[in-house]
Write a structure and sequence with these properties.
The protein has about 100 residues and is mainly beta. It is built from no helices and four strands.
Length: about 100
């Protein structure tokens, strides 16, 4: 049974003239924090709360869905939503960049 393939190289590496090859590299990046958030509120009418259920009547309800997206480049923490016209369930939440 054949054994594993081994590739042997001299260390330190040498060029064709047998001179030692060396290299060094420094890389540093910086960025400016740019927090940003997007909030979308979508309402859906629930017409079957009050008879007749085939039309909109006083007393029918609207359910809301909130979508929060972190449109910035830093993590946002402790996000809460308040709305004077709705009861909000859940939260607070944390969102990394690009997450919703």
């Amino acid at each position: 049974m054949p054994g594993p393939l081994r590739i042997m190289r001299p260390f330190p590496p040498k060029d064709p003239n047998n001179a030692t090859i060396s290299d060094s590299d420094t890389d540093s990046k910086s960025f400016t924090a740019a927090p940003s958030i997007s909030l979308t509120k979508t309402g859906t009418l629930v017409e079957d709360e009050v008879a007749p259920t085939d039309r909109t009547d006083e007393g029918d309800k609207i359910t809301y869905e909130f979508t929060v997206e972190n449109t910035g480049n830093v993590t946002l923490t402790g996000i809460t939503i308040t709305d004077d016209d709705a009861t909000i369930l859940g939260g607070p939440i944390d969102l990394g960049p690009g997450r919703e």
